């Protein structure tokens, strides 16, 4: 496989392959940018089809973290780790400690946290080997409820977009139907919030027990995971894995709003234009799903972590989303283009002031 010349590489600063023969650890840590600060991004464990798929995922997710952290106004660069394997079958505490040693060798250039397949108990094992961990149970804890809150606020901002005098309009989601795809840490909590706000739900997960649990709690209708994107709903919230907005799914969408937690929802950048041309409002994934990293960043406050401060900052996602939607509508650019430009402007301004002070 090619790495440097692959499209996903996109100017990465560093890519590290971590291996531990005793525990079977095979990990890839991709550090895309440390311009704004240390590269911060979660660690995902997934049974990839092959090693090339794992590297590509790490690179794409890492780049996404650079943009996410920049848009969220954090003093963090972008990075991400992936561990190759099935989290339900292959993961062991010793493997997570081996991963911690790989992280530690990067001496703070990469700070890890949880992502798909990895929980706070795994991060506790990592913490035994390195201090470069955020989101532990005894600090800011599971970031997922904050991610879910941000997605919930982003959905409301999308529903408000274009409505006259909408500022206080969307407290109730009565009459709104939302399809939630993926009912893990984020999707299940998002479904709860949407249900409490009065929305009707359609849900799906590849694990039937997860879908049944959410349906019991929220009265949701359970759909087929293979076709939930095509359900006749107002909002489609992808909360499983990436690549769900592609040549096959986009023509089948009936939702007018796409707003969910999954990273890298667009299979390719051009799919943002296809959505816009169909009149579908897309909430850029790395903006709407930044609640978790905004929460863990509060651990770096001089005063220490505080959940109230974290919640207040996550509420900033509403305003950022509204700005992106308004600029996209006014300029004819896609919401993804507007978000990318905002993030790149912040990184460029920071690099310029750093270079000026170094001169
Ligand atoms: P999770 O592992 O807890 O949940 C993912 C769920 O999706 C699982 O229940 C899984 O069975 C299900 N799933 C997988 N493939 C599916 C498919 N094809 N159809 C339906 N369901 C499927 O992960 P999570 O922490 O809830 O994260 C969900 C998404 O949000 C991921 O893309 C993650 O990168 C992103 N994200 C999470 C956070 C966070 O704070 N946890 C923050 C930002 C972004």
Automatic annotation (TrEMBL):
Mind telling me which InterPro entries this protein's record contains? Aminoacid_DH-like_N_sf (IPR046346), Glu/Leu/Phe/Val/Trp_DH (IPR006095), Glu/Leu/Phe/Val/Trp_DH_C (IPR006096), Glu/Leu/Phe/Val/Trp_DH_dimer (IPR006097), Glu/Phe/Leu/Val/Trp_DH_bac/arc (IPR016211), NAD(P)-bd_dom_sf (IPR036291)
Q: Which domain of life is it from?
A: Bacteria
Keywords per UniProt: NAD, Oxidoreductase
Gene of origin? ldh
Any idea where the Glutamate/phenylalanine/leucine/valine/L-tryptophan dehydrogenase C-terminal domain is? 141-355
The record's family statement is:
Belongs to the Glu/Leu/Phe/Val dehydrogenases family.
Q: What is this protein called?
A: Leucine dehydrogenase
* SMART domains associated with the record: ELFV_dehydrog
């Amino acid at each position: 496989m090619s790495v440097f010349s692959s499209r996903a590489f996109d100017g990465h600063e560093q890519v590290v392959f971590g291996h531990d023969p005793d525990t079977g650890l095979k990990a890839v840590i991709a550090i895309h940018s440390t311009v704004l600060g240390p590269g911060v991004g979660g660690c995902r464990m997934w049974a990839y089809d092959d090693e090339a798929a794992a590297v590509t995922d790490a690179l794409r997710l890492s780049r996404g973290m650079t943009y996410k952290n920049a848009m969220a106004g954090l003093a963090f660069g972008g990075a991400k780790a992936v561990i190759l394997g099935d989290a339900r079958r292959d993961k062991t505490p010793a493997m997570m400690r081996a991963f911690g040693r790989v992280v530690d060798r990067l001496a703070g250039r990469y700070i890890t946290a949880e992502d798909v397949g990895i929980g706070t108990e795994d991060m506790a094992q990592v913490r035994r080997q390195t201090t470069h961990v955020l989101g532990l149970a005894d600090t800011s804890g599971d970031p997922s409820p904050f991610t879910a809150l941000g997605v919930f606020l982003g959905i409301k901002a999308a529903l408000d977009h274009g409505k006259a005098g909408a500022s206080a309009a969307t407290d109730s989601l009565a009459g709104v139907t939302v399809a939630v795809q993926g009912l893990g840490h984020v999707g299940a909590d998002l479904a709860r919030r949407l249900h409490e706000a009065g929305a009707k739900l359609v849900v799906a997960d590849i694990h039937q027990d997860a879908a049944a649990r959410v349906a019991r709690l929220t009265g949701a209708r359970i759909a087929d995971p293979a076709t939930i994107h095509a359900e006749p709903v107002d909002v489609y919230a992808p909360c499983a894995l990436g690549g769900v907005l592609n040549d096959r799914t986009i023509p089948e969408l009936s939702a007018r709003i796409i707003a969910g937690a999954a990273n890298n929802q667009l299979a390719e950048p051009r799919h943002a234009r296809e959505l816009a041309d169909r009149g579908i409002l897309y909430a850029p994934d790395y903006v709407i799903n930044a609640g978790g990293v905004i929460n863990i960043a509060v651990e770096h406050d001089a005063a220490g972590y505080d959940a109230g401060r974290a919640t207040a900052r996550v509420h900033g996602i509403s305003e950022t989303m509204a700005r992106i939607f308004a600029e996209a509508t006014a300029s004819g650019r896609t919401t993804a283009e507007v978000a990318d430009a905002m993030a790149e402007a912040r990184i460029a301004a920071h690099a310029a002031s750093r270079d000026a002070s170094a001169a």
